Amino acid sequence: MRGSVSLVRTDFLDTFRDRRLDACAGGVPPGSTPVTGGRGAARVLSTHPFGDIVVRPYLRGGWIRHLVQRRYFLGARAFRELQVTERLRAAAAPVPEVLAAVQRRARFGPGYHACIVTRRIAGTIPAAVALQRARSGEVRLLMEQIGRSVRECHEARGWHADLNAWNLLIPEARPELPVIVIDWDRGRYMEAGVPYQARRSNLERLRRSLNKLGLTTALDGWPALEDGYDRPPNPDPAA
Q: What global pTM score does this model have?
């Protein structure tokens, strides 16, 4: 598509072309449906052989969304998120699998639209939903697992810009599996490691999210999250 730049994983290229995903930055992919149990404009699209994929356009937040909901002017958000996520994935952090990133020049006026495509993680639901449904005895385990996954991302040198209960995916049927930390838009890969204050700011942002959602049982279980965070991450199996 004219005015569009895409970074696509080699084995996904045919699917990307067949489903015309180069247009995802400017509109809703045909045949897609909203993400169940999530929020925002992310869409699910069934493909072969990759199964379900998630197509997430970049949307403005705050007051400026009323003026330029999809339009950005500086940087290359999708490509930055792809780079950060892939570096964390290479370090075995619990993050999603990115398949493509697209940036497209806005049709009228300056700026660009963008979107990112990831493989959907089957059998997971947002922590905002899981913690609301969980029985009191299950909350501690969920909170502990959340703490472990956030610690693993920090140890892999990743700092999340918006760590909240919607950006954590909980495995429904297998609680022993790691919680997946998604949406690394504006996140950073810190070469020198994530400093203490930045780590605590991530955790405090998550705590504010739980409070805003009224998840009192999760807040009561916050010590379990701290316990999970303080536990040393699993050793690298290749070590």
A: 0.89
